[in-house]
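Protocol step 4 of 5: obtain the predicted structure for the target chain.
Materials: sequence only (see below). No template structures provided, no constraints applied. The aim of this step is simply to have a reference model before the mutagenesis design in step 5. Sequence pasted as it appears in the construct record:
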Amino acid sequence: MAHIGWIGLGNMGHPMTKNLIAAGHTVTGYDVVEAAITAAAADGVTPAASIAEAVVGADVVFTMLPKGEHARTVYLDADGVLDSAKTSTLLVDSSTIDFDSARTLHKEARERGFRFLDGPVSGGIGGAQAGTLTFMLGGDEDAVAEAKPIIEVMAGNIFHAGGEAAGQAAKIANNMQLAISLQGVVEGAVLAQRFGLDPKVFFDIASVSSGDSWPLRNWYPVPGVVETSPSEREFAAGFSTMLMHKDLGLALAGAESQGVDLPAASLVHEKLQQLIDDGWGNYDTSILIRNVDPESKGLPKEK
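Step 4 output (structure tokens):
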């Protein structure tokens, strides 16, 4: 069993640490939000008062943070992870951050004598709770092999995407495709209803035809069709509009640096921004249907 240091005990980090503890690992955790530390401690995390305290003596350190700027701060600032951990400690950043920040973290960690993996995840809060996340790992094969036995406790799938920052590249491109597919689903759902089709009948047709997609089968935006859909819970966030907007922003920034035009991603990014501007940013991304049909069934009455 491993001694794990964990930085970032929010909606994803907390259930991930809970699964590690249930498997017999020891986890010492830190978060800038005191309430997050308290909640995780109730599920067995040993609370730390600082990053340095969380990583001391750890075999592996995981970070789960909102943005690249937070990851750079946690790893690179004085008394951060690189200053405080032993170089024998394996470092895994499971945040979803920009490609360039991931490359910077790899470079700085390597120059300081650490092994480092970028390891973003897919599967949302539900996947974190169930231990079925998909991990996309970027880094050396030896580091991946060392991390896998621990990651398996939290994962349904583990992929070695390639070298430095390859995990972030895979996550960014995947979520961009998800967002574009979801925009097609919400537009199709509204058009089918305006044509007079029953939502369940249209879903049954599309789900076995060329219009099939993951968001169609899991996030169908009309209630009474897919039990797991956020539309059944007034669009309570499984994957919030704010987070998807952030991830599409990462895709667009990466595309600009690589000289790639992404017109569909740009369109959905604008549609998500519209929802955020209107006060719906904390609701599930599938509330995109509101832009097409503000009177759609299942929409919450209040922001």
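Step 4 remarks: Strands lie at 3-7, 26-30, 46-47, 60-63, 90-93, 115-118, 121-122, 133-138, 155-162. The mean pLDDT is 96.
Proceed to step 5.
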